[in-house]
Every structure is written in structure tokens, then in C-alpha cells.
């Protein structure tokens, strides 16, 4: 298997609510979307939104639970100011702040917010990671 991630699909409670939230954040929905799933291009990969029950059924897993989903999504940004700006945009779109922006023990600047389903998003400026002009992250 090649070390690559192509698509992250979130199981959401209400597809219409989540679809609208991500649109308010500036995510452009793909023509590949339909009444049951929404797709958004995210650089070299994509984000999918699918009903929670339908996603569990599709993966042949028992129904979803509540609480922390044991995953966080992250977007690295070019500066601390960009972290603050994007967090403000997320809040304006309806996000809940989980951790206010601030300096991190590892030398960067970070915060977390939750989307309408409680999925945690980290926004970070990391002086140890290189970001390309297209936002692509290159690990040291």
C-alpha cells in the first residue's frame, strides 16, 4: 500500500447542516455530490460528508456512538495571524472553539474547533514543517 490519503469521510448527523457549515467555511462542493453524500476538494485530497448510520452500514460496522471520535483533522497555515483569522472564520460559520489559539509546547501556535458534529479541527502554524505555495505540507 502506498502511504497516501485520498479522502476523509465524516459520518454526520444531519447532512444538510454539515453541508451548509462547510460551505460557510469556503469549501466548494463538487459536482460529484448528491442527495446522500457531499464531496469537497481539499488540495490533493477530498473531504466527504455522509450520514452517520449510512457510513457505519457501508463499512459493515455497528451504529455510531457519542463522544470523541478518536481523530482530529488539521490544517497547517503559514503564520500565527493566519491561525487567528481562520479560527475567527470558523466561529463565524458556526464552529465551537475547543481550545483557544495559543503557543504550543512544541514551538508552534495552535487551536482547535469543532464542526456541527463535534469533529475536532486543529489549526496550526508549525515552524518545523514546510508549506508550499499550494498549502501542501512537507515533513522534515
Defining traits:
single chain; 140 residues; alpha/beta; 2,3-Dihydroxybiphenyl 1,2-Dioxygenase, domain 1; 2 domains; 4-stranded mixed sheet; 3-stranded mixed sheet; 9 strands; 22% helix; 34% strand
In short:
The protein has three helices and nine strands.
In the CATH scheme, the class of the largest domain would be Alpha Beta
Instruction: Could you tell me the CATH topology label of the largest domain.
Output: 2,3-Dihydroxybiphenyl 1,2-Dioxygenase, domain 1
Shape: globular
* SSE ordering: EHEEHEHEEEEE
As a whole number of angstroms, the C-alpha radius of gyration is 16 Å
Q: Structural class of the secondary elements?
A: alpha/beta
**Span between N and C termini?**
22 Å
Can you characterise this structure?
This protein is of the alpha/beta class and 140 residues long. It folds into 2 domains: 63 residues, 2,3-Dihydroxybiphenyl 1,2-Dioxygenase, domain 1 (Roll), CATH 3.10.180; 61 residues, Roll (2,3-Dihydroxybiphenyl 1,2-Dioxygenase, domain 1), CATH 3.10.180.10. The protein is 22% helix and 34% strand. It is built from 3 helices and 9 strands, in the order βαββαβαβββββ. Strands 4-7-6-5 form a 4-stranded mixed beta sheet, covered by helices on one side. A 3-stranded mixed beta sheet has the order 1-3-2. The longest helix is centred in the middle third of the chain and has 14 residues. It is globular. The mean pLDDT is 91.
Amino acid at each position: 500500500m502506498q502511504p497516501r490519503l485520498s479522502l476523509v469521510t465524516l459520518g454526520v448527523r444531519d447532512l444538510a447542516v454539515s453541508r451548509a457549515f462547510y460551505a460557510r467555511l469556503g469549501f466548494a462542493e463538487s459536482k460529484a455530490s448528491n442527495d446522500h453524500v457531499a464531496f469537497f476538494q481539499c488540495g490533493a485530497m477530498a473531504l466527504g460528508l455522509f450520514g452517520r448510520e449510512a457510513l457505519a452500514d457501508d463499512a459493515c460496522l455497528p451504529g455510531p456512538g457519542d463522544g470523541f471520535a478518536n481523530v482530529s483533522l488539521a490544517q497547517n497555515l503559514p503564520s500565527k495571524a493566519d491561525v487567528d483569522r481562520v479560527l475567527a472564520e470558523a466561529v463565524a460559520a458556526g464552529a465551537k472553539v475547543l481550545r483557544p489559539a495559543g503557543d504550543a509546547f512544541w514551538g508552534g501556535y495552535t487551536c482547535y474547533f469543532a464542526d456541527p458534529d463535534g469533529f475536532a479541527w486543529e489549526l496550526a502554524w508549525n515552524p518545523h514543517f514546510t508549506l508550499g505555495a499550494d498549502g501542501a505540507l512537507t515533513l522534515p
